[in-house]
Amino acid sequence: MHSIRYIMVGGFLGAGKTTSLGRLAKHYQDQGLRVGIVTNDQAANLVDTNSLRSQGFQVNEVAGACFCCRFNDLMSTIDTLGLKQLPDVILAEPVGSCTDLVATVLQPIKQLYDAKFSLAPFPVILKPSHGRKVLRGEKGSGFSPKAEYILRKQLEEADAILINRIDELTPAELKDLIDLVEEQFPGTPVLRVSARTGAGFDALTELLDQRGDFGRKVLDIDYDTYAEGEAELGWLNSSMSVKAPQSFALDELLLNIVERLSERLKLAGFEAAHLKTIGLWEGFFGVANLISSESAPELSLPSSCQVQEVDVIVNARVACDPQELQTFVTAVVSEACQERNATVEFQQTQSFRPGRPQPTHRFALAVT
Ligand SMILES: Nc1nc2c(ncn2[C@@H]2O[C@H](COP(=O)(O)OP(=O)(O)O)[C@@H](O)[C@H]2O)c(=O)[nH]1
Ligand SMILES: [Mg+2]
To answer: Which of 148, 150, 329 has the alpha carbon at shortest distance from 236?
Structure first.
């Protein structure tokens, strides 16, 4: 029977999962393999889904709750990926505030769908900005101890830890991170990568090609702490259409929205876990991002387009009240549009705190 290679890449919000999956998808497609991507979010209108689709990949989204709570949707969505035959490889991106994925996703796949899938090693990406502070136990990561607990648990269940963004790290910073990871997660292989440049990806694909028994590190986890940590994050997904009498630079608008939002959040003392926005116009697209209060907003995928009409999606995950977050987003988008004499029509906006995770399955014992 055809066996689908299931590759799930974990990591905190803004760690580099989507960028890594895009790179891996291209790698497997170049080998002639059929690749499907499954994204996941607590709500509809996900920037990542649109960004990966715009790059030409077959992408389905499990929306409304995380993979563990929508396990059956995760399984059924793989059959409807729009590929003529079943895929050879599935690349799956869980929600960045989600953990306990070994017990609730990987072991259920292994124990219930063993004939259909083979599990690749489960890599989890470490985001240097928040990761360093959390692993050092420094005050002022911007997150509460309960949210930090999630980041640690994510790394604890990994088959390999990927230190990402090595393109930006000095040798001393990289060594510091490696030492922290090796000390706190002994025995877990550590890879150094840059999802941006592709550095370290040969080692990553070699790791992912390994055959063996993976996804076995079932966590000892306190669901109350996990749920409370997740609920401390304000979540917002908003879609809108923007129109102007004269054309304007799409990339400048996207970057300006993220810059304005970043400034407002900084002033209010709220830590951004990840802000991202995509602009879509006639097959062209641009994406802007911010991944922490310490980093600069950046245009990660430029469209280089001048537009008069564009569909925009904003996703924000911030340690603050979701209603307040919505007020900020509405204000900054309106201001950025006004500056370009553009009008904005908000279509769908959802802002909330993620609910308590209630996994469909939880297998406390790993099978071989
Ligand atoms: N400099 C640099 N930026 C990166 C790297 N990987 C991801 N990013 C950027 O970090 C931001 C968040 O990445 P994304 O893949 O969306 O993270 P996700 O939330 O884990 O899916 C985007 O702006 C990416 O372009 C990297 O290796 N180096
Ligand atoms: Mg993502």
So the answer is: 329
Strand order through the sheet with 190-192: 10-11, 123-126, 160-163, 190-192
Pocket probe mutation, ligand 1, options 196, 204, 315, max atoms within 8 Å of Cβ: 196
Ion ligand 2 neighbours (CB, 5 A) are 17-18, 48
Residue ranges in the chain modelled with pLDDT below 50: none
Q: Kindly report the number of other CB atoms within 10 A of residue 204's CB atom.
A: 24
Q: Quick one: 135 exposed, middle or buried, by C-beta within 10 A (0-12, 13-18, 19+)?
A: buried
User: Which ligand is in closest contact with the Cα of 254?
Assistant: 1
Q: CB neighbours of 175 closer than 8 A, spacing ≥ 6? A: none
Q: So where are the chain's domains?
A: 4-230, 234-352
CATH code: domain 4-230 is: 3.40.50.300
Q: Which atom of ligand 1 is nearest to the CA of 125?
A: 20
Sheet with 284-290, side-by-side order of all strands: 298-301, 284-290, 272-281, 306-318, 234-249, 343-352
Distance 48 CA to ligand 2 centre (A): 5
Give the residues across from 210 on adjacent strands: none
* CA–CA gap between residue 141 and residue 120 (Å, rounded): 32
- State the CATH architecture for 234-352: 2-Layer Sandwich (3.30)
**One-letter amino acid for residue 125 of the chain:** I
pLDDT at 150: 98
What's the whole-model pTM score? Answer: 0.98
